[in-house]
Structures are given as structure tokens and as C-alpha cells.
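Changelog-linked ticket: alpha-D-galactopyranose example.
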Amino acid sequence: MPISFDSEKRIFKLDTATSSYIFEIYEENYLVHLYYGAKIPDSNLSAFRYTGGFASFSPQNINIADGMFSPDINPFEYPGNGAGDFRTSAVAIRNADGNNVTDMRYVSHKIYSGKPSIEGLPALYVENENEASTLEILTEDATTGIQTVLFYTVFENLGAMTRSVKVINNSDKTVEIEKVMSACVDFHTYDYDMLSLYGRWGKERSLERRPLAHGKQLVASKRGSSSHHQNPFAALVENGATEDYGSAYGFNLVYSSNFVFEAEVNQNSGTRVVMGINPENFGWQLKSGEAFNSPEVVMVYTPDGIGEMSRIFHRLYRKHLIRGKWKDIKRPLLINNWEATGMDFTGDQLVTFAERAKELGIDMLVMDDGWFGDRNSDRSGLGDWQVNEEKLGGSLAEFVNKINALGIKFGIWYEPEMISRDSNLYRAHPDWCLHVPNREKSIGRHQYVLDYSRQDVRDYIFGEMYKVLSSCKIDYLKWDFNRNLTEVGSAILPAEQQKEVFHRFVLGTYDVMDRLTKAFPDMLIENCSGGGGRFDPGTLYFSPQIWTSDNTDPIERLTIQFGTSMCYPASTMGAHVSACRRTGYDTKGNVALWGSFGYELDPNKFTEEDKRIVKRQVAEYHKYYDVIHFGDLYRLISPFENHFRAAWEFVSEDKSEALLTCVTMRRHPDRMLIIKLKGLDPDKYYVDEDTDEVYSGALLMNAGICLPNAEHDDGQSFIKYFKAVE
Ligand code: GLA
């Protein structure tokens, strides 16, 4: 069993193939954290409990005999608030007496095979019980009777674990949860760099690295979505760690709304990490007998560098997060009309898109925004999900039949959480959007946000979607979300529960997504939020791919895709070739192949040469699908570090195939370009399909391949495919 409990020493040990996580039940039932890092056989780590001298400003627990135990300086599993530990808390609950002192101590535990799901929330899953083991620890605040259950699930073979928390109100009074983090990890030192992903619309998930310093450093969102601006991912990596070397601890929250990741370096130069729902603008009334579930944090540790950390996340998410029919089978290669037409299209025009798509070998046409209600600009129509038959030249079924008759599948766009100010729905139900009394509502892209905390609102929208989606054969749905939440209040909740609306909103979104996946299990869902504004594991649980960014410039996409790959696998990244100005179609295709591939342009405008390139790309998409979607990613040359070029490589799990891509952002003055491959079998021989030359894996990884640089001008790129020979 990867999880063990030494009942004599009262020590828990959670092992994966590469890591150990160790903590103890100390006197007075404090849960003291002892170790998280590379796998070790020992559990004798009591020296890491801090019993040395401490500053006189750190309070002590008088019940511990030697008087040398202070909650302020010991490393803890799930620290409370206001009871002797002044560092950032993991949990704070305002009790019926009005104070928020919270002090959870160990009561009992159980260890079992498998992994429980979390009611109402997305979470990693197992298909059979042998794939993971779980430890549940019950803790209690003896004064208030409030309990927490700490869940730890270990994915032994993958070097990963998940953590989440359930708060139970066992008292007979109502209390308010002010802060409930999904996990806390107390590191003993602060010799780490923090990695995080920042951005904005059109520039999502740029990688940033900073050394930890005393005090708090944090990334967070309070936008009502995980956001373009900061992603719910962060890592602590050993100072000096590279793609291939050094300890890396990755954290990723399975949640699509307000989050926080905090790393606080304290007076003894230890680092406390907490991650969970952002306590700012959060509060939750918990009545007697009720329970509250936190979302879960995925934690990955590897001693083998940042690249391996990413590969562990990728393997974990492909197997234990992505669900449904499209998890393991080839996704359709699509063409989307948005960048070509905006909302100004007709049914007949889209039929010509499908005809060209058929000639080129594309599988599916996606009709984007503008097919419903009075939706001819972004000022109106959201919420009125009735087909605009005038625009389509007939019913949706008639239109889809024409597309299907060409042998092309059909997909459709929705923005289910939104309502236009100028819509029949808003005129009929002005109180159905998020709002607070007597205050003007902010507008975003001319629209308001529906109050998804309300069951009646969700039922109505789901009902309208169901009517359309069941009226004909729809193979794909793009779920969009084009603004963030403001004036967050609900007309049906009492004043003391208004702080719950952010969380209730995302639970409502998950509820509708869940109903949709159950009602249409064969339909592929791609999420989107003005590009990649809600790119997080919570969203991926319901849709195996997400539109990575509205920015389809292949050079700017490099940093976006490199950053996104920190924890999200290639198969999750929607990536399309568009008609944007920069680079030729070759490079656009080579960059978009790193993802769920497609086109976003008017295929009627292709020249004969363009068509030749597209047909080649379609063939490449099929040929390289498995190595890209199921293989291991190696980031070889990062555009965050190198201003001339970027390179990456996919290697199949059995190391029999490798696909190398290199893009020149700016011509390099050197005459030769040497790229060393990674992840191959040194003892295997590989044929370079361009030249028919055969090289050992050892040569390709140590000497590399050598190419004349003169051929690599600004915006040019190449892919190279290596296949093992028998
Ligand atoms: C968002 C999406 C785009 C497109 C438009 C439609 O911006 O990111 O891809 O669907 O909405 O309004």
C-alpha cells in the first residue's frame, strides 16, 4: 500500500514511485508536517518538528510538557486561525460566538483503495480501485465541534497526489466559513523559485519565474473565472532547476473560478504554501448538520526537473481527468468560420465552407457565434437560443443535413452563461442576471452574466439548449464565456448568503455542463472564454479541449503554447491555422499541430498552392496524431529564454517515434543549427524520414542533429520525424 500508518510513532507516509510525503500526529493531536520530496525509505523524521529554541513572540501550547512547542513555528498539515500560528491559515471559520478562532486537531483516520468523487465538483477519477489509494483524516475543533475531513489520494505510479477538504458543521449552530484552503504544504526552507503563468486576453499563460522572498507571494483570480490573467497553476522549483534537473513541486487547482495560491516565507525561512478558493469575496453559511466541499489541488513532485513535472501532469490529466468518448479516440479536424465571417454569414455560404473542407480532407464544420436570435453584432441576442432560420435559409436540421450530406460533421457555438441587454430573455427576466440592489450593472462586451446560482435560470437555459441540440445531428459544441463577473449578487439569496454567489455560480456552470455531457455523451465539447480565459482542470473535466487563445498568430502562439504546456497536455489545447498576416501556412500548421488541430479561415480564398499545403497538413495531422496526443513533450528551446527560435519534441510512450518542431522567430547569425533531442532510447536506431539517414538515439541526444541555419529565415519552421528501425 502506498499509504502507511506507523501506529507506534503515529506517522503517516504517502509514497509514489518517485516521492514521499510524511507527517505525524504529535502531542495534543497536532498534525505536524515532516517531509515532502524525493522518495525515502525512512519515517524517522521527528527532528523536523521544530523543538529548538524559538523567539519569545511565538506563543506556546501550555499542555505540552516541555514548553518547547509553538504552533507559530512548526510545520502543519492543515493550520487554523488565531490559535498561536500567525502564518497564513488554511482554514478560518467564524463561529456562533462571533470570533473566527479555528484550531483543528486529529481525531481519526482511514486508508482505502480508490478515490472518492467530490459532490458537485470536478475532480480526478480512477477507473479501477488499484489506480490510487486514499487517506482520510478527520480533524475537529474541540471548542466549536466543527470538523474537517482531509482527503489525500496518491497516484502511486504517476508521482502525483490530490488533496481536498470537507468541512462539517457538527455543532447545533450556524457558522460561516471565511477561508477553506484545499491544501497546505509547509516546506522547511525557502531556496525555491516560484513559477506561475500570467497574461491577458490574447496573451495567455506567459511563464514567470521569481525567487521566493520573505513575506507572501501569490497568484490569484477574483474575476469569477480562472482567468486569462493568472492561471490556477504554480510551482516551487529548486533554485537553479532546469527542464531536466532539480526538484519541482507543481500545484494546480481543479476549479474554474476565484482561486489563490500563496507562498509565504516566514521568520524561520520556511515556506508555507496554501491553495484553494480565493477567500476574498467568499463566505459560506454552514447550518448545523451541513457539509461544504472544497475543490481539489493536484500536487506533482519530481526530482527530475520542470520538463518531467509537466509530463507527469500531462499523463495524469490524459488518464484521470479527461473523460468520455473523446478521451482516447481521434478528434475531428475542424474548420471554424469565426475569423473568416464573424456573425455576418449565411447558411449557403457555410455550405461552401463544408464543400471546400470535404475537398481538403477536413472532418467538421463549426458554425460560430451569430446563428440564433437577433444576433448580428455583439450588442444583442445572447439568451435567445432560437435558430435564426432566415440567416440559415431554413431550419437547423435542413442546414445540418446539407453539411452531413457532404460527409462533413457539424458543430455549433453557445455562450450559455450570458445574456445580452438587448434580448427577449432580458426583457422578460431582468432579475435573472447577477446584480446587487440599487447599483448600476457593469457591462462587458455589451452583455450581462446570468445568475447561474439559480436552478430556475439553469433549467431554462439547459431546456432551450436541449431543444436545439436534439433537433438534428450535432457532433460538437463550443461553450464560450466572454466576460468576467461584476456586481455579484443573486435576487433569491438572503443578505448573509450573498458572499456565496461566486462559488454557487461556478457550481451552477458545472451542473449545466454535467447535464450536457450526460444528455449528449457522443458530442465533443470544446470550452472557450475569449480564447483561453478559463483554461483549467475544472473545465477540462467536462470538455477534453479548450480554445487556447483568440490570438492565432503562430509566433505569438509560441509563448502561449509553451506556457500552457506547463501542466496541460497537447490534446487539451485547441490550435487553429488562420489567415493572420504573419508567416506562411507551413509555419501556421507546424505550430497548430501542437494541439487539437483545425482551421479558422475562409477556405474559398485558398490558392492552389495553399490547398497543396493544407492537404499535406491534413495528412500530417493523421500521421502524427498519436505521438502528439499521447506522447511525452520535451520543450527543447523556450521562446521565453531564446529570442531567435523555439523548438519542441514529442516522443511516443514506447520511444519508437519522435517528432521535432523548430520555429525561427528571428534569423540567428550562426551558420549551423544543432538541436539535441531528448527522451529517446539511446540503444535504438532511428531513421530520419527526410533523409533516410539512420542514427542511434544516443547520437541524436548527445551530438544532436545538425542543420544549415541559412535555410531558417524569420517565420520559417520545420518538422522532422524519426522512427525507430527494427
Ligand atoms: C470569443 C471566442 C471566439 C469567438 C467569439 C464569438 O471571443 O474566443 O473564438 O467564438 O467569442 O463571439
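Closing comment: Example verified and attached. Residues 608-630 form the longest helix (23 residues). The chain has a mean pLDDT of 96.
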